[in-house]
Amino acid sequence: MSFRILGTGSALPVTTVSNEDLTKFLDTSDEWIRTRTGITERRVMNDGESLLTLATSACKNALEMANTSPEEIELIVCTTLAGDYTSPALYCLIAKALGLSDRVITMDTNMGCCGFEYGLQIAHTYFASGMITKKAIVVSAEGLSRHADWSDRATCCLFGDASGAVVLEAAPDRKVDFDWTVSGNADILNITRHADNSPWNTYDGKGVLHMNGQEVFKFAVSSISARIGAVLEKNGLAPDDIAKFFLHQANIRIINSAIHKMGVAPEKFPHNIERLGNTSSATIPVLLDETVRAGGVQRGDKIILCAFGAGLASIACLLEF
Amino acid sequence: MKEKLIAIIAEYLGKDASEIEADATFEDLGLDSLDIAELVMQIEDELGVTIELNAELNNIDKLVEYIENQG
Asked: What are phi and psi of A57, to 5 degrees?
């Protein structure tokens, strides 16, 4: 058994932070940020918001589009770098907020910016095994504003907060396939942990994001073309067979370089990084939701989602919408 | 080697090779850090080498020396 996407949803924090806002406490400029990243503004959570509120809204929007009641959901996979609590995991808070069954299969997964696609892969496995037979949710909720180093002008301008979700329905004849790699590299992209409580450990880290931009750029561009090329080849498809490519929104320069390397029409690559920045695993489900609601994807279209990030991991997911 | 790198960078910048000075810093040539990363990927593909970027590799002469030392 395979699946199809029945509904999409997304939710954004209310607070918009422009590049100009960042110049008030950073030695930077709108021009510097835009030319190096393509980003003009991003959304950040305020005191009244949380990953739970964002994820719950995104799921409700997806359930509404899917005309699905919470009781029908058999599995919920939540992808996040870090939930509102270290424990309990975010999934169980979302499950309660949505009114899901107490028998729902649930899990949080942390695969960095690739989380949404790995979440789809987990759901695909449950459908294929027969453990679930009807409907599932994959929801990504990320609060990068909590982890960015706001004194580092080279990285903090990249990130924002958001949540995106999909409702999946079992579908026997829908094409779904994946291609992925994980290298185990923690050097060029990581978020360190905060100082430990343990009196036997002197580690006093600040828990902030570190990134070697040039090496991540190289990894990202080469991974996008490799993963998409592999999933196309495995399925006997060409780029012309794909209606839209949804790339992880990390930097417009990465997106443009990958498009150039692949030689595919830029119109097939929707993007929203200008307004939202990099929201880790939430970028693709949010972009998918915006594109679907704008009529940019039609039933039966083959689409590819492709992400890359911490791990270093990369993954492409071929879907028939 | 130097001529090849100058040709790649000139094409990237949309300039004539005669306008590219090998001892000018990449920054002076109008290249930012991501331009350099993109060019290095192209150079790696075309020359079959691996280049680990660092702040010292800031002009064409140094990049040529780095690649030649890789042997």
From this structure: -65, -45
